[in-house]
Amino acid sequence: MKRSIARKLLIVVLALGMVFGAAGGVLAKGKNDDRGGKGKGNKGKQVEIRMEFDDVPMEWARKHIASLAAKQIFQGYDDGTFRPNQPVTRLEALVTAVRLMGLREEAESAEKKTSHLNLKDEKQIASWARGYVAVALENDLFFENESKLQPNKPADRLWVTTLLVKALDLDG
Fold first, then answer.
1. CA 46, CA 30: separation in Å to the nearest integer?
2. Which residues lie below 8 Å from residue 172, measured CB to CB, with a gap of 6+?
3. Which H or E run includes 113?
4. What Å distances lie between residue 54 and 2, 50, 59, 127, 167, CA to CA?
5. Each residue of 79-115: pLDDT tens digit?
């Protein structure tokens, strides 16, 4: 029962974030990714968790963002910002969904990072994110008729909502 309520609350928080453009900044800062920086792999590496972002003025949003940052769902950008007024890309939404499913370790594995994605725009997907896309494909987070991710395209509310419903297994 508690898990169901928590999932529903999370969906509401994320949907509100999308409505207000406040769900950006899901890009991970990983020690082994192409962008450098400190981060957490799951092999005992140093962890840097930023839970406060200077560019999040909305008091109501801070506690929700901090909660998701503590769970390493959101981590902000390398420059320490969250960018709440920037549109969420489809890739950022997908990474968030995979992390919410608890599959971050699998998505960041060497095996998944080298997976063939079988998407028409596979070359547009950053190398650090390939594993997340592979895990999303394996877990049916895409629509059946989707052959492209369009990773840099702003994610619309319907696409994100459908993605989260699938990721959190809320189909019923």
1. 10
2. none
3. helix 110-113
4. 32, 11, 12, 29, 30
5. 877 787 889 999 999 999 999 999 999 999 999 999 9
